[in-house]
Amino acid sequence: MAARINNGQGRFAGKVVVITGAAGGIGRASALRLAREGADIVGLDLSREGLETLAEDIRALGRGCESVCGSVTDFSAMDAAIARAAEVFGGFDGLVNNAGIAGPMKRFDRIESEEFDAIVAINLKAVWYGVKAAYRPLRERGGGAIVNVASMAGLRPNWRHSPYGITKAAVVSLTQHAAMDYAADHIRVNCLCPGPIDTPMFEQMRAVMEPAAYQASRRQIEQRTLMNRFGIAEEQAAAVAFLLSDEASYVTGIAMPVDGGWSISDGHAH
Ligand SMILES: NC(=O)c1ccc[n+]([C@@H]2O[C@H](COP(=O)([O-])OP(=O)(O)OC[C@H]3O[C@@H](n4cnc5c(N)ncnc54)[C@H](O)[C@@H]3O)[C@@H](O)[C@H]2O)c1
Description:
Largest sheet: 7 strands, parallel
Low-confidence stretches: none
CATH superfamily: NAD(P)-binding Rossmann-like Domain
Radius of gyration: 18 Å
CATH topology: Rossmann fold
Number of helices: 8
Strand content: 15-25%
Bound molecules: nicotinamide-adenine-dinucleotide
CATH architecture: 3-Layer(aba) Sandwich
Order of helices and strands: EHEHEHEHEHEEHHEHE
């Protein structure tokens, strides 16, 4: 069945959201979704070109969009995004820690120490810093919401993809701990666990694999969902918007699968 998306209106009128990895699949779809619902956006990404396109598209929707080009591993880039939100929009109400990489796909014993450090820096430590840095401005704002983009891989392991799964499992735990410490200040912290989503991250696999092997791998992944398909970024954006919105006012500390049933699948074709 094809994906159907209901684009809600107005839930983020007057709100400002900082999004990392805003130029990529899920980050860009989330930024556009939130802007359509009234939010102004500050995007942080490595891709200057992707940020420029996003800013044009958001301004065309009548909303503001500021960009910070840099790496989330450089904490001054996150500080700059938060500072930009304050200077231009008077502060922010939500943070989406979405930037991430797939990292090496090989047996556990073949992972090099440098490879492990690199993925931990992006997928885990940068998320930790974002959640830490957002605390004071959100508290001063009277509260807010944070969404960390983890993965189903953080809840169920995948063959030969341990560094990714380990970092995403740690993001689930990080989310729970921050939710505990921040709740009294009216700051909700949740994480999203996407299943397989058609984004540039998956497209990169196409470039490094034989066409037949790529198609076989896609088919195998599809069959591991109950819905027999990849998801689309807009389906994740809808969940990001829900978790950031006041409709989720009693939701904190959760790891929310949006995965076409991956989490309960037995992995067999239907
Ligand atoms: N695509 C999937 O199937 C899937 C599944 C589960 C979880 N996720 C998670 O969703 C998030 C977004 O993934 P996506 O599929 O949209 O990927 P994507 O590759 O389309 O987008 C990721 C974006 O993050 C940016 N980025 C990467 N490293 C960065 C860094 N060091 N500093 C700043 N920006 C950086 C990239 O430039 C890119 O624009 C990731 O955390 C990923 O792990 C994706």
